[in-house]
Design a protein that fits this description.
Length: 398
C-alpha cells in the first residue's frame, strides 16, 4: 500500500462505538483493524447500518468512504466522502480523501467531467491545507497530484518540489520519500533518488515508511539493501511476524526459497501469523518439487487451523491440480470464498477461476462460466486465464 493510504486509514480513526441491530457494539478501532488487514468488504458491511439516516457520524461516513475507495468503488467513495465533509467541515483528512477520490475519477469519463473533477480535487486539497497547513496527508496528496497530473489538469512539477520542501519540515521521512518520487519521475535522477531513500531510511520512525523504502530498493534491483531495510522495518513494527511474512513473500517472488524458508521459520507457529507461515512453508516445498510432502503440509495447516480460509483455498487448489479431484476441490474453494472477508490473499478472483476449472471438469459449464465472469469482473487477466475463459464460454454456450 502506498504511504498515502496507510496514513489516511490510520491517522484519523479514534475509538468510538457503533451498534449493529441485535448484536454487541462494534468499536471503530475494530473496524480499523479489519481495514489494516485488508478486510474492506467486512468493514464496509459493518458500517452499513451506521451511515444511514440523519444520525450518521462524520467518522462513520469517512470510514465508509475509505472502504469504498480501497474496494475501487469510486462513485460510492465520493458519495460518502462528500457526506463526511458536510457532517464535519473542519477535518482536513476528510477533505484530502475527497480530493483524492475526485482526482482518481477525473481519469475516466468525458473530458468536461474530468476537468470539473480535477478542479474539485484541487479545491479540496486547498481546503484541507487551509484548515491545517501542516497536515501531512494533505501535503503529500496535493504534491502527488501536482507531480503526476498533466498540465491541463493542474499538474505542476515545480509546485510539487515546493510542497516537498514544506512536507520535509513537517515529516522528515515522508519529505525525503516525496523528494525521491520527484527525483525519479520528474528528473530521472537515479543518484538523487537513492540518496533520498537512504535519507528516509536513516530518519524514519514508522515501520510503514521503512517498508516503503525497502520496496523501492527492491524495485531498483538492490536486493541486499532491500533485505537490510526490511529488517529495520520489522524492528519498528508493532506486529513483527506480519512484517516477516512481507519479507518472506518478497523473497519468494525473487525465487529465494531457502532465504524465505528461514524467515518463515522465525514466525511463532502458535501466533496470529502462524497459519500463514505454515502455508508459505508448504508453498516452498511444492516449488521444490516435493509434491507429496507439500500435500501433507497443506492438509496439516487445515487440520490444525480448521477455520483458516486460506488453508481451505490452498488445499482445494491442490485437490484440483495435484490430485485431479475436482469434486473434493469445489467445497473447499466455495468455503474459502464464503470466508474471504477477513483476508486479502489469495485474491477472490483467483479463487473464482480455480472454482470454475473444477466445475468445468465436472461438466458443470453454466456454473463454471458464472465464476469465470466474476473473476473477469474483478480484474483477472492474462493469457492463461483468457484462454480458459474462451474455452469455458464456448462450452457453456454450446
Amino acid at each position: 500500500m502506498r504511504p498515502f493510504f496507510g496514513l489516511l486509514i490510520t491517522t484519523i480513526l479514534a475509538v468510538a462505538t457503533v451498534t449493529l441491530g441485535g448484536q454487541a457494539p462494534v468499536e471503530l478501532s475494530t473496524i480499523e483493524d479489519l481495514m489494516d488487514e485488508g478486510a474492506y468488504e467486512e468493514a464496509s458491511a459493518l458500517l452499513d447500518s451506521h451511515v444511514k439516516g440523519k444520525h450518521a457520524t462524520a467518522q462513520a461516513l469517512f470510514l465508509k468512504s475509505t472502504a469504498a475507495l480501497m474496494l475501487s468503488d469510486l462513485e460510492e467513495a465520493e458519495e460518502f466522502g462528500d457526506k463526511a465533509v458536510k457532517a464535519d467541515r473542519t477535518n482536513p483528512e476528510y477533505w484530502t480523501q475527497l480530493g483524492t477520490i475526485k482526482g482518481l475519477r477525473a481519469r475516466n469519463g468525458s473530458k468536461l467531467k474530468a476537468i470539473g473533477r480535477a478542479k474539485g480535487a484541487r479545491k479540496d486539497y486547498d481546503k484541507a491545507l487551509e484548515l491545517d497547513p501542516r497536515c501531512t496527508v494533505a501535503l503529500l496528496s496535493k504534491l502527488r497530484y501536482k507531480l503526476y497530473a498533466p498540465g491541463i489538469a493542474g499538474g505542476d512539477k515545480d509546485e510539487a518540489r515546493e510542497l516537498a520542501g514544506r512536507l520535509l519540515e513537517v515529516d522528515v521521512a515522508q519529505g525525503h520519500l516525496a523528494r525521491a518520487e520527484i527525483a525519479i519521475f520528474a528528473d530521472q535522477d537515479t543518484t538523487a533518488y537513492r540518496a533520498e531513500l537512504e535519507a528516509a531510511a536513516a530518519v524514519a520512525t514508522r515501520a510503514e515508511d521503512v517498508y516503503d523504502v525497502a520496496r523501492r530498493f527492491l524495485a531498483e534491483g538492490d536486493r541486499d539493501r532491500a533485505w537490510e531495510v526490511y529488517r529495520q522495518a520489522i524492528a519498528l513494527d508493532d506486529h513483527p511476524d506480519r512484517g516477516k511474512l512481507r519479507l518472506a513473500g518478497q523473497m519468494l517472488r525473487q525465487g529465494l526459497l531457502d532465504e524465505a524458508e528461514a524467515v518463515l521459520r522465525e514466525i511463532k507457529i502458535r501466533g496470529p501469523q502462524g497459519p500463514r507461515a505454515a502455508v508459505g512453508l508448504a508453498q516452498i516445498t511444492l516449488r521444490r518439487g516435493e509434491k507429496e510432502r507439500a500435500w501433507q503440509q497443506f492438509q496439516d495447516v487445515l487440520q490444525v487451523n480448521p477455520d483458516f480460509p486460506p488453508g481451505k483455498y490452498y488445499l482445494g487448489e491442490q485437490y484440483l491440480l495435484m490430485k485431479e479431484d475436482p469434486a473434493a476441490a469445489i467445497p473447499l474453494l466455495q468455503e474459502y470464498l464464503q470466508g474471504y472477508v477477513r483476508q486479502s490473499w489469495p485474491p477472490r478472483a483467483v479463487a473464482h477461476w480455480r472454482l470454475a476449472l473444477a466445475q468445468e471438469q465436472l461438466r458443470d459449464f453454466d456454473r463454471a462460466w458464472e465464476n469465470m465472469k466474476q473473476a473477469a469482473e474483478m480484474g483477472l487477466a492474462g493469457d492463461e486465464f483468457e484462454s480458459d475463459e474462451r474455452r469455458i464460454k464456448f462450452m457453456a454456450e454450446d
